[in-house]
Design brief:
14 helices; Alpha-Beta Plaits; 7-stranded mixed sheet; 3 domains; Rossmann fold
Length: 537
């Protein structure tokens, strides 16, 4: 096949939701229905013998939550699907935001009992800012939940786009019988089963088919009237409006019981866009260009703890990747020839010989690649939009056993480069290392990983700081003057970007008034290289 034909086969999307909406369970069932796995794992029970394919960290298995995004590639209907499962918890939203820069569409999971929740709204705003097309799956219809019409109204009110139902539930809770495919005019009836895909699906054609009414009684009678209502009231589906994030196809089901999963998987193939052009600072990069380009959007340490490995996740932006090809790291201007590049099914890896725009590949390396790095065949390019947000919580960290200080520093350096936590080294002599986070759970996860992955039993202590701002200036002397005068509050992060550590918002306002030539940033991008050259001046 040509590069253009291969690109047309790709679908790259992220699954996003509020915590506990069933996102990771749906991920498992998509893998199951695509044939990538034979038995779906559980994300709930701590004593479960099988865990979700996307939850590979020990702490994820213990707590039944996702704390790191994971990547899975599978083939379905002659399409190559790159599926990225993201953490739902707000404390890990930075990881989710970075993943959203690497996808072409998003599958949003909504809990039918709770409706549109706060984290769902925040993630949607990120998608809308990037005009990322969204497919919605309203989950847990096998429970007693809210009225489907109310859920649709709430979606439209909060999401600011037209919700266009593609399927509709027949009953709920104990009376839930399946989902009616509105566009194909047929009802799919599933057998309940949590781990394996059932035999041939039971499908009955026709909304007016008396067999459906006889089998499901009042539940179908209500569903039928609702389908007639929404068919008349909802706008017709417009694929261009969907691609512009102005319409969202909506599906109903129960992921844990395999209801409605098939429709979602087919929609991803039929509706989700193939990889599109990406805007670099220098020019627009088109996916079917002959030359390879790729962006590191995630770095993960210790996916294989026995080898202390670090894997850079690279979204291919254009061209074709061949194993062993020469690639330039634009940030350092150095060349590399990766020979052990892998594709993923979460922690399981397979050696990869080739990849095309839209694919996500893993490049094992020892600190050569950082978040935001661009890889090309020689051209210097820079992509924007990979965010690092100023932390809102701080804790000082030290190791309980002084002889394990090297392990602590190694662990913090790698976890900081990974983006799991932000690590600051105070300029002042004798200052303890500081950890910065968006949410409290990040500290607990990092302490657990330091102990289990690096053998460093860390002690976390309260800090007097409540915020940080990265600092730059067009005048190197003004920046040096500020840093000398405030040395007790200056620290460097893992990419040597200087930050001003602050105890109160009043302190920040005073600094801004006294030093008008210094800029205080609540966000940085691209591993710090945008700011770091000025800071080192």
């Amino acid at each position: 096949m040509t590069i253009k034909e291969e690109v047309a086969r790709r679908r790259t999307f992220a699954i996003i939701s509020h915590p506990d909406a069933g996102k990771t369970t749906l991920t498992e069932k998509l893998l199951l229905f695509a044939g990538a796995i034979q038995i779906a794992g559980s994300v709930k029970a701590r004593k479960a013998t099988r865990h979700a394919s996307s939850d590979w960290m020990e702490i994820e298995k213990q707590r039944g939550i996702s704390v790191a995004s994971s990547v899975m590639q599978m083939e379905y209907r002659d399409c190559v699907i790159n599926l990225l499962d993201t953490p739902g918890h707000a404390d890990f939203s930075e990881d989710t935001y970075r993943v959203l820069t690497a996808v072409d569409a998003a599958l949003m999971v909504i809990d039918a009992a709770n409706g549109v929740e706060p984290q769902t709204i925040r993630l949607l705003q990120v998608c809308r800012a990037r005009n990322t097309p969204i497919i919605a799956f309203i989950n847990k219809m096998d429970r007693e939940v809210r009225d489907p019409l109310d859920l649709l109204s709430e979606m439209e009110a909060h999401l600011g786009m037209d919700a266009v139902p593609f399927s509709w539930p027949v009953g709920m809770g104990k009376s839930f019988g399946g989902v009616f495919d509105i566009r194909r005019d047929r009802m799919r009836i599933f057998r309940a089963g949590q781990e394996r895909r059932g035999a041939d699906d039971d499908i009955i054609d026709g909304l007016q088919n008396p067999e459906i009414a006889k089998r499901f009684g009042s539940a179908f009678e209500q569903a039928s009237s609702e389908i007639e209502l929404i068919t008349a009231a909802s706008p017709a589906f417009d694929h261009d409006a969907f691609l512009a994030a102005k319409q969202a196809p909506v599906f109903f089901g129960s992921a844990v019981n395999n209801f409605g999963v098939q429709e979602v998987l087919d929609a991803l193939v039929d509706l989700a866009p193939q990889p599109g052009a990406r805007q670099a600072l220098q020019r627009e990069v088109k996916p079917d260009e002959p030359k390879f380009t790729g962006v590191v959007f995630k770095v993960q340490a210790n996916m294989d703890p026995s080898h202390r490995d670090r894997v850079a996740f690279v979204r291919v932006s254009s061209g074709k990747f061949d194993r062993g090809m020469r690639l330039k790291v634009c940030r350092t201007n150095k060349e590399m020839r990766p020979n052990n590049v892998v594709s993923f099914l979460s922690q399981r890896r397979e050696l990869l010989d080739e990849a095309y725009a839209g694919d996500v590949i893993g490049i094992p390396n020892h600190g050569v690649l950082q978040l935001g790095d661009v890889l090309t065949e020689g051209e210097i390019l820079q992509f924007t939009g990979l965010p690092f947000f100023a932390p809102e919580l701080f804790q000082a960290v030290e190791v309980k056993d002084p002889l394990r200080m090297k392990q602590l520093r190694t662990g913090l350096a790698q976890l900081g480069e990974e983006g799991a936590i932000q690590v600051f080294r105070p300029v002042a002599a004798g200052g303890a290392l500081l950890l910065g986070a968006v949410g409290q759970l990040q500290f607990e996860v990092v302490a657990h990983r330091l102990k289990t992955e690096y053998g460093a039993d860390a002690r976390l202590m309260p800090s007097r700081y409540t915020m940080a701002r990265w600092i730059t200036s067009d005048d190197p002397k003004a920046l040096r003057k500020f840093m000398d005068a405030n040395a007790a509050h200056i620290a460097y992060d893992v990419v040597d970007a200087a930050a001003f550590l602050i105890g109160s918002s009043a302190q920040l306002r005073v600094a801004e008034e006294l030093y008008p030539d210094v800029k205080f940033h609540a966000m940085r991008e691209h591993g710090g290289q945008v700011f770091s050259e000025k800071m080192r001046a």
